[in-house]
């Protein structure tokens, strides 16, 4: 991992600690930070797409084998594993069980590209997966609830289209257009500094987003500490399952 990415990881961990302290010492202020989550997600997605070059994204879209494997893993293998883990830890608590199940069955979408970028992953390929994952999880959501949680839900196709526009298409078009225009009108040295600034802002924005998510939910966590411990164990088991499987 590059040195700057190590600093980004430390910054995220620090943001979690600060948000927990804020949630304990100033719960009302912490709860209000939830209103910043959506704007921060949009800002992060814009910065991530602004860094991308358009041609690598086009080339990444041709990797049909990888995209197919990723889809099977995200929407067949992982939901099955998630159901097993959720059943093991929270079978006697239907509300928490369903919530954990939804978390496991919703693959990473736009703002998780921030973690991909910090880890040195292929953000161009990840950006191609975003609309595929978003559309698939919205359409399969009622199917999963019916099969795994014995619950019924309807699909709002207009809502799905709106989500795709707001969280992917609009920031993607705006960022790519901004990149192309500014790269042509600015001197190369100025545009290079702008790109460097974008790279610095990405981990800062991601850390702020993580802090807002945690601080806005500290009160809920504290009121359900025993269940939260079970959820942490379930998430750890779920996250470790690919590594454990690969060792056999």
Order of helices and strands: HHHHHHHHHHHH
Mean pLDDT: 81
Low-confidence blocks of residues: 244-248
Q: Tell me about the biggest sheet? A: none
Beta strand %: under 5%
Give the helix proportion (percent range): over 70%
Q: So how many helices?
A: 12
CATH fold group: Na+/H+ antiporter like fold
The CATH first-level class comes to Mainly Alpha
Could you tell me the number of beta strands? 0
**How many domains make up the coordinates?**
1
Radius of gyration: 19 Å
Structural notes for this entry:
The protein is mainly α and 248 residues long. The protein has one domain (43-240): Na+/H+ antiporter like fold, CATH 1.20.1530.20. The chain has twelve helices and no strands. Helix 1 packs parallel to helix 10 (188-216), helix 3 (37-51) crosses helix 9 and helix 8 (123-148) runs antiparallel to helix 9 (157-185). The longest helix has 29 residues, at 157-185. The radius of gyration is 19 Å and the shape is globular. 27% of the residues are buried.
């Amino acid at each position: 991992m590059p040195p700057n990415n190590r600093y980004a990881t430390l910054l995220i961990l620090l943001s979690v600690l600060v948000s927990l302290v804020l949630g304990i010492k100033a719960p009302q202020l912490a709860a209000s930070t939830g209103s910043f989550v959506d704007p921060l997600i949009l800002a992060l997605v814009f910065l991530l797409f602004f860094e991308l070059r358009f041609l690598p994204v086009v080339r990444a879209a041709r990797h049909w084998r990888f995209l197919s494997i990723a889809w099977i893993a995200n929407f067949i293998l992982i939901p099955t594993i998630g159901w097993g883990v959720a059943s093991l830890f929270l079978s006697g608590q239907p509300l928490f069980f369903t919530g954990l199940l939804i978390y496991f069955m919703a693959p990473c979408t736009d703002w998780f590209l921030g973690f991909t970028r910090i880890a040195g992953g292929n953000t161009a390929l990840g950006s191609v997966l975003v609309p595929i994952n978003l559309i698939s999880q919205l359409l399969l959501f009622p199917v999963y609830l019916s099969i795994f949680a014995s619950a019924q839900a309807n699909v709002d196709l207009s809502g799905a289209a709106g989500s795709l526009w707001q969280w992917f298409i609009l920031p993607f078009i705006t960022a790519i257009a901004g990149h192309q225009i500014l790269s042509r009108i600015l001197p190369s040295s100025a545009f290079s500094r702008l790109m460097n600034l974008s790279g610095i802002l990405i981990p800062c924005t991601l850390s702020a987003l993580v802090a807002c998510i945690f601080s806005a939910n500290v009160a809920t966590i504290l009121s359900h500490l025993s269940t939260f411990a079970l959820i942490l164990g379930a998430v750890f088991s779920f996250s470790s399952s690919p590594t454990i499987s690969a060792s056999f």
